[in-house]
């Protein structure tokens, strides 16, 4: 939340150093993404080891989500005077301590506490990391830099979680948390060595909160919330859709989700490239693609091959929006980039929760046929996100011509 200055010189050496510095952030994002999702694959092992039920072990996922929700605004406000590099180091330090404590946890309560500690850093890391990544490159490549950092999160889903699950099943779940601790430590070293020192120029917290109350900033948050709510209205229930409607065997779902993971990686990278060329028009186009893919997924779900194609396309379209949504927030709230960026990460998580809730309503009340109607409902939610994005585009054009 500082008006930090990181001048970009444009030399070949500067470009190379900037890319390497962003890779340090990518590694941090990989570690954080891995610790967020890894518990899903280790629930039986954790439950047996700590003598709790599977549902109780599942609450470790809820605990992490609670930590993300509480940590993002609290840490961002509490550290608003810190230089961004120092803040990144603090966040990675807390993350490392949380995961080391998880590896050593003698009881369920301690493990829950450790998960919450690690989660406190999640939103702030992606928020401040987005700002730093964007400032390390020329203006016309900022979305690509943000996308590169978020690639760590997508790779955590494709590679980190399966590998971490294997380690946990073969050597014990504590070994997985030690591995995450090691990866986090490497990211910490990378930030120390590679991310340039940032000169801080603190701004008043009241002024930054005032920026967040501007209509265009609120619209940007709604763009993110509803754009991602559409994704998770469907994706939360992708397993029953694939099993009960498409007829895939249960043991094939993990392989299908790898296909989705490849899609989100591709979408993240090329979404960043498109956003750098034409931010809001490309974002509108990707959201329209997302709405179409979701609607057609409901139509073709009874055919296996077509379903596989649309699951892949869902991944591409879903994460194709992420760099653009994050960059639009940075552009809209230039006077409070770290606070705004962090709240935008919270808006992504709010969209996840809202989408899961809306999809559940469709299923519970049998609206439109219940489970079969979930993809169409997701498409309709995405259209709400498109409308907010069109509103944001209109605001942007009006501001440029003012």
Q: What is the arithmetic mean of pLDDT?
A: 89
What would CATH call the homologous superfamily of the largest domain? MFS general substrate transporter like domains
- Rounded Rg: 21 Å
% residues in beta strands = under 5%
Number-wise, the strands total 0
Low-confidence stretches: 1-9
How widely separated are the two ends? Answer: 27 Å
Structural descriptors:
402 residues, transmembrane helix, transmembrane transporter activity, MFS_Efflux_Transporters, 2 domains, disordered N terminus, Growth Hormone, Chain: A, 17 helices, MFS_dom, mainly alpha, transport
Task: Give a brief description.
The protein is mostly helical and 402 residues long. It contains 17 helices and no strands.
Tell me about this structure.
This protein has 17 helices and no strands. The protein has 402 residues and is an all-alpha fold. The chain has two domains: 12-194, Growth Hormone, Chain: A (Up-down Bundle), CATH 1.20.1250; 205-400, MFS general substrate transporter like domains (Growth Hormone, Chain: A), CATH 1.20.1250.20. The longest helix is centred in the middle third of the chain and has 30 residues, at 142-171. The radius of gyration is 21 Å and the shape is globular. It starts with 11 loop residues before the first helix and ends with a helix.
């Amino acid at each position: 939340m500082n008006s930090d200055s990181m001048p970009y010189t444009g030399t070949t050496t500067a470009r190379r150093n900037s890319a390497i510095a962003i890779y340090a952030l990518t590694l941090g994002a990989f570690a954080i993404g891995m610790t967020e999702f890894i518990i899903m694959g280790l629930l039986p092992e954790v439950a047996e080891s700590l003598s709790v039920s599977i549902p109780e072990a599942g609450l470790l996922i809820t605990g992490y989500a609670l930590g993300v929700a509480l940590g993002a605004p609290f840490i961002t406000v509490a550290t608003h005077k810190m230089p961004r590099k120092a803040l990144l180091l603090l966040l990675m330090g807390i993350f490392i301590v949380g995961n080391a404590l998880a590896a050593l946890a003698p009881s369920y309560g301690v493990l829950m506490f450790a998960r919450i500690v690690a989660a406190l850093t999640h939103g702030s890391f992606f928020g401040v990391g987005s700002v730093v990544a964007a400032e390390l490159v020329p203006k016309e490549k900022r979305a690509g830099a943000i996308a590169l950092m978020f690639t760590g999160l997508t790779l955590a889903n494709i590679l980190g979680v399966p590998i971490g699950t294997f380690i946990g099943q073969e050597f014990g779940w504590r070994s997985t948390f030690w591995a995450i601790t090691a990866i986090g430590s490497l990211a910490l070293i990378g930030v120390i060595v590679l991310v340039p020192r940032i000169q801080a120029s603190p701004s008043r917290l009241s002024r930054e909160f005032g920026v967040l109350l501007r209509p265009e900033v609120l619209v940007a948050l709604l763009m993110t919330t509803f754009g991602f709510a559409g994704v998770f209205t469907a994706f939360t229930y992708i397993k029953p859709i694939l099993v009960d409607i498409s007829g895939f065997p249960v043991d094939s779902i993990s392989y299908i989700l790898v296909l989705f993971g490849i899609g989100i990686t591709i979408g993240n990278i090329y979404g960043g490239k498109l956003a750098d060329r034409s931010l809001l028009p490309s974002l509108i186009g990707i959201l329209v693609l997302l709405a179409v893919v979701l609607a057609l997924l409901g139509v073709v779900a009874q055919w296996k091959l077509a379903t596989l194609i649309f699951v892949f396309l869902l991944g591409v379209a879903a994460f194709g929006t992420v760099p653009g949504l994050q960059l639009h927030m940075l552009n809209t709230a230039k006077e409070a980039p770290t606070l705004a960026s962090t709240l935008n990460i919270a808006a992504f998580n709010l969209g996840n929760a809202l989408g899961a809730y809306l999809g559940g309503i469709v299923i519970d009340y049998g609206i439109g046929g219940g489970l079969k109607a979930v993809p169409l409902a997701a498409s309709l939610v995405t259209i709400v996100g498109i409308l907010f994005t069109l509103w944001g585009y209109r605001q942007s054009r009006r501001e440029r011509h003012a």
